[in-house]
Amino acid sequence: MNTKKNKIRNAKLWIFDADDTLWESGLYFRRAEEDFISLMQSLDFDSDDLRSEIHRRDIERLSHTGYGARPYMQTLKLILEERVAVVTPYMLDSLAYISNCLLNHPLVLLPGVLASLEKFFSANRRMIVYTMGEEDHQMDKFKRSGISRYFDHCTIVPMKTKETMIELLASAGIAPDEACMIGNSPRSDINPAIACGVNAIFLERPFAWQAEQIEFAEPGLVTTVTDLLEIVSLTGLW
Ligand SMILES: [Mg+2]
Q1: The pTM is what?
Q2: CATH number of the domain that 52 lies in?
Q3: Each residue's pLDDT tens digit, 4-29
Q4: Maximum Cα–Cα distance for the chain, whole Å?
Q5: Which residues fall inside 5 Å of ion ligand 1, going by CB?
């Protein structure tokens, strides 16, 4: 058995990203974007031009706002205010509706999540959720997910970095190569894990957010799956 597989098999701590790893998230951001573009089209703005501006400003803001639904909505509001001479109550109401849908979206678990967590749990594997964004919004989703009982706790940071991963491992009392990080983002989940020596499993999902798509720091160290149940069979533990 190769070393990478062996390390994954023997991992003492399983660290799960949440958004688009355990449950749908990007889908609701795309819906918010489409609704905003529809609103702007109704005001005679060009959709392609807007879409590229949203994506550009979304990436620009990350370094000073961190991740989250509210900062994203703030970007949309700024674009509206900059482009429209007189912002009317109709526009603000529409924006408030889009924001409400995004902040309170349903918690839909991804395929294979429940069955996989059940297997890990019954094998007494220690699991935590490690997610980024705004504390109250992420914790609200964690509580609504119905799967919180499987995890020791949920750690929320504004942005995932090598340093936040080191802090996480220290608080868990686990050496890097005894941990396994599972996530859908090369930028936020995989590369910080690799940089610390944590085993990394990349969950490949369609429609990944543009800002999160960068090259793996060391592709040879990454295991790629398309479904969490693949990890269960990959490890051969159950
Ligand atoms: Mg994610």
Answers
A1: 0.91
A2: 1.10.150
A3: 888 888 899 999 999 999 999 999 99
A4: 66
A5: 17, 19-20, 184-185
